[in-house]
Structure formats: C-alpha cells, structure tokens
Amino acid sequence: MKKLVPFCISAAFIAGCSLIQSPSSDVDSKTVAPAKSAANAASKPAAKAKAPTIYDIMKAEVGNYSWPTIPYVELIAKLDKLRERPDIAANASFCAVIDQHIVKACKRSPWQKLKLWDPNLRHEIPKYAYRNLYNVKGVTQAQKVEFVWSLVEYYAGEEKWFEAEQVVRDAVASVVDADPKRRARTQWSFKVYLINLAKWRFNYAEAWKLLDEYSKVDPRAAAKIATTLSHEETGGPDKAVKFWRNADDLYGEIMSYYGANPNCKKPADLADRAYAFVTNAANNAGRRIEICCMLYNYDNSERSRNARKSLKGINMAKMPRLNVLNNSISRAYTYGDWKLVESLFADYEGMNSLNTPSMLRVRMISRAAAGDKAGAIVLAEAGIANTSKAFTELDREKFRVSIAMLKGEDVIKAIESAKLDRKNMIALVTTAGRQAVTWSMTDYAEAIAAKYSSYYVQFPQRELKVAYSDKPITSINDWREIYDSLEKQYCDRKWGARVDILETDVATGRQLLGTTQNDSKNVRMEITSVCDEKGLNIFLRVEDPNARKVEAGFANGIGTEMYFAPGKYEAYDCFGSSPRGGVASAFQTAYNSLETDRVDYSGKRRGEFVSETSFSDSDYVLRLFFGWDRLAKKLPSKDRPWRFECIAFTPVGNYSWGGSAGVHNSSCWGNLTFDFTPEQLTAIRKGIILRAVKTWRKAPNERLDTFDKWADPEIGDPEFYESVLKPLEKELSSYAAKVKPTMTDAEVNEIFENALPKWVALKHEIDALRKVYLKHKFAK
Amino acid sequence: MTIKTMMAAMAVMLASIASAKVTWYAVDPMSEVPYMPDSAPKDGIKGDDMFILAAKGEYEPCSFVLTSDVDVKKVRFTLGDLKNEKGDVLPKSALDLKTVKVWYQAGNAWTSYFADPKLKLCPELLLNDEDLVKADEVKKCNYARIEETKGKYTYRWLNAPSALDRRNEDISGSRLDDSFQSMKPNFKDADTHQGAKLEKGRFKQFFLTAKIDKNQAAGLYKGEIALSTGEKIPLKVRVLDFELPSPKCYFDENKDYLTFFCEYVGLEWVLKSNGGDYELAKKQLEAILANFARHGHVTPTFNNNLGLMELGKRAGLDYTKPLISGNMLLSEKAQMRHHAKLSKKRLDKQLGEKTIKFMTWGDEYGLATLRGIRDMIKIYHEEGFYFPVNSHSGYCAGGYLADLWWPSFAPTAATAPLTFKFNQLGGDGYFGWYASQHVGVENPAFTRRQYGYGAYRAGFSCNYNYAHHLQGWNDIRPELYRPMMFVYGCGSGCIDTLSWEGFREGLDDIRYATKLLQLAKPLSRSSNVDARYTARKALKLLADTDGDDMDLTTLRLEMISYIEKLAKFSK
Q: Does the global pTM surpass 0.80?
C-alpha cells in the first residue's frame, strides 16, 4: 500500500490556516517540512565541508531573526541586504530561506512585536513572496505553498479577492508534472486555498463544490476540512458525513472530532462507533489505546470501564508514551478522583510512562486517599525496592516515610532517620507534609508542619523606639542637628528571605543579615525616628558618596515600598518612594468612616503628611511626617505601638527593616514604640485640641452648615436637631469654651477624651446619630 | 452513655439555660468594625429591637450580638411569623438566621487582600451550624468537620503552611490544588440554623436576613426571636410600598450598572473541589449561580456561560444583560473577519440580536499591544461586538476603542475625573474597576461601598473585579494574595460571608439611588413647585454626598425618606 503523507505544509503554515489542511501529496520528503528540508537542501554541500548553514549565516549577520530585538523594519533591511551578498545571491536555496523569514517577519502579528512593529510591513509581503514563485530555482514545493498562502492571506485581508484567487490560479497553472495523479495532488496543495477564500466570503456553496472535487483527489484531507466547514455553516456535522463515508477512515474521523476539533458537534452515532473501534481487538492496538485514553479515561462509568477493560491483552510495555494517558491521570488526580486514578493505573498497567517515581507516588497517594492503605503500602514498598536509576535515594526515603504514616508509626522518627543532606531533607519533609494533609492525617500534618517550620528562622520583632524632641522637628535640617543622638536601624533583612533559608544552615542565623554594608557600593537604608508635639517623623537616610549623582538623576539610588498602620490590625497604607521624588502615591485599605480617617498623602492638607527630600555630598534623606491630628483617635502609647515597614530596593538586592517575606506582610512589620512622659502626652494632646478648636471657631460657616442645616425646616430636620443634635452642639460648645492655653493637665485630658473624638469626626458622628434616629422613626 | 447519664447531662444543660442571663445588642450588619468574641460591640445598642427596612422583593439583613453570664451549650432560636396592624403575615420562611463564624484568617484579614503568613481571628462565615468549622484558639488555627460516615465526624486541619498545602506534589498543578476538597458531599452546612454555643462573658454575632416577597403588603410587621434561654428579642420588619429597579448609573439613570467577575467559577473548578463528580458539580454550580442571582449578580459571568446557558437561566441569571460572549480571534484579517461574522451569527441566534455582546482578548496589556490590536478590534466592532479592555496605561491610545474600560483603579472620588472623561466620549461604554482592592476583604462595609455607592457616585458603570473563588479554606496558603473569597465552596454549593452580603447591600444602595433618580428627575421639572423642590432636594442629597465617606446605612435611610415623599407627588 502506498504510504500517504498526511500533510505537505509546515507546522507554522498549518497554524496560520484555521480550516484548510493541505492535501496529501506524493511530493518527495523534502517538501514535507519546508523549513527543515530547505535547510537540509541549503546546508547539504556545506555540511560536508562543515560550512555554515544559511541559518548560521543569518544568525551571525542579523542576530535573532525569529524574535529580533531590533525593529522589524531594520531586520528586514538586514536580511534583504544579506540576500544580495554575492555568495548568498548565488545560492537559490539560501535566498528562498531568507525570503521565507522576511515574509514571516512581515506577517508577524503586531502584538508579538510590540514596540518593534511597523503597521505597514504587511504590505511588503507581495514583494518578497512573488519573487520566489514561478520559474525560480531553489524554492521547494513546500516553500512555494507557504509563499502562496501568505499572498492569499494578504490579499484576502485587503479584501482583494480577485488578486487572491489569481495567486492560486497562477500557482496551480505553474505545476508541471507528467504524472497526472501527482500533478493533481500538487495542484490541490494550492487550490485548497480557494476553499478558504470561498468560506471567508461566506460562499459556502462554492466551498462545498470545491471540497467535492478535492475529495476525489484526497478524501481524508477533504473530510477533515468538511468537519469544520459543516460546523461553521450549519452548527452540525451533517454535511461532513458523506465526506467521512467517502474517506472510510474511522480513526481519522474520531481524531478529527474528538482531537483536533472538540468544539464541533459530532455525528450522533460517532460515540458508538468509537466505542466499537476501541473494543474491537482487530483494530490497531496503539490507535485503540489512544482513542480509549481520549474518550474513556475521564470517569468510571460502565462504558468507560468496559472500554478500558477491552484493552486487556495488549502488551502495554511495547506501546509508545502517550501524553493523553498521563494527562488523563493527571486530570483525575487533580480532581481528587482517587478511585479513577487507581482504575487508570490498573487498566494501563505496564505502560512505560507510568513507571516513574512520581507516577508511582500519584498512585500510592490516590490508593491511600481512597481508603486502601494496605494497597498503598505495597506500592510504596515497590518504590523502595526499585533500584533503577530513575528512583533516587530521596524517592526511596519518601516511600519509607509514607509507609510509616500509613502504618501509623512515628513519622517524625521516620523522617529523622533519613540519611539525606539538608536540601533533600527539606524535600522529604515537604512531601511528607503534603501527603499528610492530602490524606487528612491531621496529627501527622501538624507534627510535620512543626518540623518544617523548624527549618526556618523567625525574625524577632523589630522595634524602634521613637525619640521625643521638645524642640520642634520641622525639616531635615532640624533632624540633622539631633542626628547623632538618635537610634539608628537599617533595612538589613533580606527581603523574601524564606526562600533562601531553605538552602542555608539557619542554625546560627548568620545568613539573615543583608550584605549591603560589605558590598562594593556600600549603600544601605538607615531608619531613624523622632516625634514632637505635632507629629511623627521617620527619616530614611542613605549614606552614599554618589548622592549628588542621584540628585542629578545620573544614578537611581534606593527606592522603597513602605507600609504604615497606626496600631496592630488597623487599616494600613502602602506607599513607595524614590530619592528624588519622595512619596508619590499611596494605596489605602480603608475608606473614611467613624473608625478610620485616611491620611492624605498628596500633602495638600496642611500638617497632615509631609514628604521631604534632601541631598548632601555624602547622603540623601527622605523625611516622612505624620501629623497627630488626623490620627488623633489612634495616638500611640506604650501599649499601642504603630506599625511600620520599609522594603529598600538597593543595587545589591532588596532588604527590609521588619523582615517581610513578601509585600504587604503585615505580621512581619516592625513596631515604632513610644514611651511618652505624662508631660509629653499632655503637650501632644493639648496641641491637637488647640488646633481642633481653632478650626471649630474659625469656621462658623461650616458650623452653621453642620448644625443649623439640620435646624432649618426646609433643608434639615428640626425634630432631629432638637432631640439629637442640639444637645451635642451644646456639649461640644461648652467644651470649646473651656479650651485655652492655660488649661490644666486634667482639663486637657478631659477634653481630649470627651470632645476631641467628636470634633475630629463630627460628620461621621452625626451620620451615626442620624442612622439611629431614622431607624427608630421607620420602626414606629 | 446510659439513658441515666444522658438525662443527668440534659438536666445540667437545662439548668444552665434556665439560669442564664443572655443580653443582646442590636448591631450594624454592615459594620465597619469586626465584632470579636472578647469585647462588647462598640456601636451596639443594648436591648434594642431588631429592625429591617426593605422594599418589596428585596433581601435585607439585621444583626445582633449575644452574650451570656454563664456558659450555654447551645442556645436555640425560634422565629415565628410576623404580622402587621392589618393582620397580614410575613411568614417565618422569609427569615434566614445565621451565626457569624469567627475563625482564623491571615494577618491582613478584614483590611486587605494581600497575603500574610500569620493567622488572626476574624468574623466572616455565615453558618447554620457553627460546628462545621472549629476555630481552635489554643492552637490558633481552623479545622473542618468532615462526615466520614453517617453521623461520624472527624476534624481536618485547615491551616498547613503554604508549601505543604498542596495536592499536586507530582503533577503539574493548577490554581486549585488545595489539599482540602471542600465541595465533596461530606463537608456541608446544615439546612437550618442549629443554635449556637454561648461562652460566659464572650460575645457572638448573628445575622438575620429577610427575603421580602414581591407581593408582600407594605406595612410594619412585628414578631420576635425567641431564645431557648427565655429571652425574646423584638423583631420588626417594615416593608416599603415599592419595588427596586435594577441598578443603573448615576450619570444616566437608564443605563444598566453591570457586575462582572473574572469568570473563574465554572464546572471545571467545582470538579477540582468535589473529587471529579460531574453530576454533583452541575448541581453545585447551579446552586452557586442561584446564590449569585440572590446577591444581585445576575450577569452571566462564569466559565462557559454560553455552553451552560440553560443551567444559568435556571439559576436566575439574566442573559439579556450585556455579557462576555467569547474571545476574539487574533489572526490574519480575513480569518478575523470570518470569525467575527460567524460569531455574530451564532451569538445572535443564541442570545438575540439586541443583547450587548463583549468579545475579549488578552489581559492587562499596555500601550504598545493596544496599538497592535486595533485592526482586530475594528473588525469585531464592525460586526457589532463590544470591546472590553483592562489596560491601565493605554487610555490615550485606546480610550476611543473601549466599550468597557476597567483599569486597576480604586473606585473612589479620586478617580471620578477619569470616569467623567470616559463617560463624555458619547458611546455606550462602561467604566469598571478591579484590583484596588481585589476580592478578599472581609469588612462588609468596605465591600458595600466599593461595589456600591462609592463606585456608583464616582461615575463608574460596572464592577469587574478579580475574583470570586470557591476554594481558599486555608487563608495562608497563597503567598502573594489571599484566596479572594466572596463565598466558600462546600458540598451543597457555597457558604456566604459577611463581605458577600456587603456586596448585595452595595448593589441595593445603587438600586435605591436609581429609584430616587428615576422619581426625582421628571419631578425636578414639575410645574408643581412643592414637587419640584422635593425632587431637587432629593437630587441634591446624592450630589452632595461623598461616596467615599458618608455612612451608607444613613444614606439609604435618607434616600428612602425622599423616595416616599417623591412617590406621593408621582401618584
């Protein structure tokens, strides 16, 4: 029987053609894979002399010609120039390969080229494609097909249908072959595109007519096209039926519907015919297995089980690896369908692709998860006994620990008895832990997790005591004056360190410190903090002899990502900084409410937040200032530290102050601790009160708006005002009257506790009162 | 245990119940602060009545916190029918009581969707049977109750470290390879409320939702929640004399306000959580989609939404709303045109010609890609498809192309100028948001504002966030983001959360605002001066409101006041 070549076009070519697969062909094998065969043809003489191939030459002259890093226009110009080089121009095969790549570059989708793309390049396709057609030596049949297809696509894309068809007609006419059968097949390798052109214009009648003709030349290829054509036109398979009947290729039909085109509606009887194919021992064993895997490995229904059982007797060990088998097992395992996993292993017992440590483990885990511990132990023992190279010592230890778990033995003892290096030991613990949780062995899982955690060092909580300055700190210059007296800490914990720790001996913890202080650039982020009567200052300083270069923009310096929260578990803010720009924007985790007042990082509200930068010859500094006023309801104290973290992106790696493993890891942040004396606290509170009451007094219009609005019979609710707001107004006014510079400490504290929270959140206070008032009103 | 000892134990239990003094606090079901077991609710009103104010056809919650001066092994609740002054009945079947489960979540719980490796207590799940999940305050972790055989239970650890909580050790994994398959039939909540344990001196929150029938007569219905410890909590439900419209936009009260999620919910994901049981998965998916619909999310955004259209419709999803209908084919022009025409023909047949159909391509691409795909977009536009894009940076190059623009914005007043610009482009475009923040924050007040009035008032016309997941029972399993849960998958479908109830309240806020606008806008030009004044005051209420910081329950009550006033003029 004559061997049929299913495709005569390249994989890339097929990928570009959604419907049409090229006809079978009698053309010689060089045309089966054009790029490869062209390469072979082009490099054959050179190979003998070990001369470079055209691909070597293109790479040497142009660089990466498939995925260039230069603009495509430049790439094409370079390839075109290379084509003109005398030694290349003299080699027709070389020229064809170059043009192939030029056309590919012209066709490359703009989304694949991004910034290197030129939208007009596609119009260059005719120029480079045509010069390889018609009476050109050195161009293989497959390359011609590819050039024709490029032209057809191009003209059709421009809606130049006549030109597109003419390209095909010319190509068909150019075929010269004395053998009429072979000539017809070759002609159809072009003519098949007329079917595309017809359907793209929704002229399905024409497409079917052409397909009828094609079916006479290559019934199988035509039937494949019919599968999608019928689905597209009618939404069903009916029109394809006669083509498949004509092709008499049940395997091809099954593969076409279930493999290549799973979304196409299938003939009603195809499932039964497929079942019959699989269960008929007279059929090709490899194909039976392939279809069985494709259709019957996804459940344990009676039909599926019977189909799989029908394979019994086939020597599985002789079968090639089938991805579809391993994929179906993976699917069942991923779904946690343990019984199905076991069934599949049993039904395909002997397949080489299943004989690996990981697949054995998959089966063992599934067996135990399905309740068959004894059976799982048998598999694990087989894994231990397997001395093939594929099974490592680590694999064997994993199976040994699995057995300990399945037998209810001391799993930690089993783990600790393994003779493995540290890295493999952690892999063993990890696997054991995963198995324990998958098997819902909670006691084991918790014990193994504790063991696992012991491989990691927990960073101690970082704490920075915030100094209090009686003298106001209003700038970086003020801070420089007291700099020497401040406690200094550093972003010196390697960010994401948990990943690294796995590879290191953590017993001493010595690897945990960052190395920036010893690296050549010797830059690190230093943190100091000082507060005063108005608010908190945090200073990030980088001692850097290149500070002026950073200032001038010739060096980037250290950027940061920071987190701030006025207390544990409070809503937090995330913001970044750069040496020159300071803090630019913020991500906030709460809206404003009675509970939360968001800090405005734009700096527009005076005294709320300041971001200031400064450069000297030896350092650059970022000052962050948080005014107390906005955070008055959450003032820090000895028992209420504020939370802060700074991740510094340095030239020698990323380091954090608190020890964050990732971004936003709030439990890893450090504490800013405060230990105010009573006098300091009173001073802070007094300052907040004076500023708050100043606003209260200074804005009578706003006060009118707040209270009088409600008293107004037209725009307010006098009843609400009288019963709810008036007492509040009276209370707050009376407190406001008490506010004076000479307040005693007791008065300060009384006002701070009772009036201040309402002054600073008056709008929200009234919202809350109004809510209760209206609810009760509606409830009456 | 003998009958004698059982009787003795029961006697002790009854004695403790009889002597218990249980106190209740009326609390805000959409509270900004979590109600924790160790402290009295800060904003709770001791001994106050439970009150629900709802429109016809609406779901509306109330909430209370209980504390007892002795341990009560199980306090049980009896809800009776409610009656109004005319004798109309609001049946007890319209009421759904849940215990708010406080359990261990990642350190950023309540505030952020970002992961944190440590655990803390946080209220979240709404359960009929609080014992379905055990939060062990000694070990500081959670356990799931698994029914091994009928009536026989084991508890499974839920909080293994990230690296250990993997099912797919030897098989390339997927997003859903949590070791715990929560949607197997052996893990599900009870069908009805099972009572709750009260520990002496500790506090526990309960969540009561009323589903008002569309035909329920308006009026004030009264009843009570009777506790097995003897207390009776007065319960009032006022049914308003109107129904709510579907949500529309602030800038155009006739334009649909849409909700989308990145469509991770689907059969495939359910199968990965239930052990590969296809028939069960179909039932579970339908239950989840019905839950979507009950929460106001009626746009069919789930995986294979068209392939499972009948199932989606049965669940109550609305296939007449704009929906994501497929992917564009990015290819050579002729093939794209063909695909676009074919898709149009197929989808028109399936959905009708009038339904707005979005065709998508890619994700989070920038300026250069957006420029590169213009041809494709134009081809699909020519066939009548809409184009959604979630590019943050490509506005200048793609603003004119987008029919749904959803950058990673926080839907706040700060982004209002950007939505304003887009809304001025004259087309029928939608402006959505995602990522800031993603799903995951337990705080119902935050969710309510983010998916509701905050976005609405800032000029957004849809929510399109990422994501609505079903797994994620171990909050410390992912390493960058928390699992992004609105509900939790279980054997019977899904378990609701405070945040998910906040989502519904957010959409309902928009529906109330829509009702107000639809009444006020025509009246604002009325020849009746009083009507005109009232309408303008109502419009001013919304115009003056900062969507970022007004208490939304207060706003809702103000809107209802105005709606009732306006309705009188409309009549």
A: yes
